[in-house]
Amino acid sequence: MRRVSLAGVIAVLLSLLCQASDTATGLSAADRLAAGGKHAAAVRLYREFVEKTGYGRETERALIALAGAAHAAGDLPAFLYARDLYARWFPEGKAPRREFDEYEASLRMRAGDWSGAAALVETILGKYQYPPEVADRWRGFLVVCYTRLARPDRVLEIRLEIVRSGRRTPQAADALFRVSEWALRQGRRELALYYINRLLAEHPLWPHRGQALSLKKAVVWKTITVEDGLGDNSVSSIRFDGDDVWVGTWLGGVTRFSRSQGRLQKFTAKNSGLVSDLIRDLWIDQSRVWAATFEGLAWFDKRTDKWQTVLTVAGLAGQRVKCVTVSDERLWVGTIGNGVSMLDFRDNTWKTWRTKDGLPDENIVTITPTPGSVWAGSLAGGIARYDLRRGVWQVWSAPLGSALKNVKSMAFDGQRLWIATHGDGLFSCDENGLNWRQFTRANSGLPVDFVHAVSVGPDGRVWAGTLEGGAAVYEPRTGAWRVYDIHDGLAGNDVISIAFEGRYVWFGTLNGGISVLLGDG
Questions:
Q1: Chain-centre distance of CA 297, in angstroms?
Q2: SS3 breakdown of the chain: % helix, strand, coil, rounded to 5?
Q3: pLDDT by residue (tens digit) across 279-312?
């Protein structure tokens, strides 16, 4: 047997002690580098320690530390080395499994491995329970991944999932904004308004609130001009006929939008049988579109798609036609200089009324039917009501001591008649011509006294279109007013026609085309 000297044993022990001291010193040095933020250098020392030491008690801690330092340094290969070696050597160890998964997902994103990162994040969200703000942060990472992978369908699904949860996280606010943008691009303005209103209500301190308000303006308002095919940017009348929108313009004839087909037709005196391009009013009945022009009355046959002109020899009093209305099988026509003409479709006979027949003025600019009556508004003589049963006119010219002059438009809300005037604001009375009120800039929320259009919405609110003051809406139940102008999104402050379609309010302006408002914003 070979004899080992005491000196040799001591030498071996000292060598082992020195090696242990060296490895311990290396691990401590790596810890100090990691704590000081020098992660790349720490990765190098941790890895050297593992490779020199091999399997051992300190190696488990070193591999966990190496994984953390590799994540901080953005070193995916070093992380994978630490994770895989740990799983092989310490399958039952105490490694932070969730952190390892999170580290890998983050590193794959930083390395541009969007597919791998997305798969890991999906797994993480299904495997671990997170507080809402943390879970939504991971969903935000998923959005980034699928955006890079050109998967807009999955991006939308994730955002809708966040939105439907009702959470009040920054990611939820961003999702509401993005989903509203998407709905607007799809032309689903009501859905877009729902999401943007939720964002503004649920996240009042969102740092991008200004962008949200700008998006809301884009959602709530839409503008249609000559660039979209409109015949002229001065819009005198807007009417709806199922899928079709008919627009009369001041100088550009009639434009017809067939929305489901995406078809647009412009009718002018040059390209059709329309008698004139100077359109002052439109009215639609079951088979015809009537156009009041300053060169005659025309009608469009919806069955033949052709225009025809009503000649004065047929019974129409004059060719300068300002307004046209069909009610109770009668066609009512207001003219400039020739009073009111009426065609009774039941026997195809005409009748005309002038001042000698009871009209206050022969310049009739607006006609409004009410139950049992027809009201006519004039330029200089106030308004008159024709009693259909008795066949007589009754005139009101100064109901409140001030003259009813320069009447521009009238509307009936089922109980009260509303009269727009140029210079004296808005008047109203009941259907018997009693209980008068006057609304002006001085005593109400009207922005100016020059009112050129008045219409009653489906909800009973009264809308007034003004010159230079935009549009004002009045709530009769509360007495509240609200004004919309170019700062809100209106195409122009000169509003000369107003029409309604469901929740949409259509404004025809004098020089800005059409503005369409979704609801009341």
A1: 38
A2: 35, 30, 35
A3: 999 999 999 999 999 999 999 999 999 999 998 8
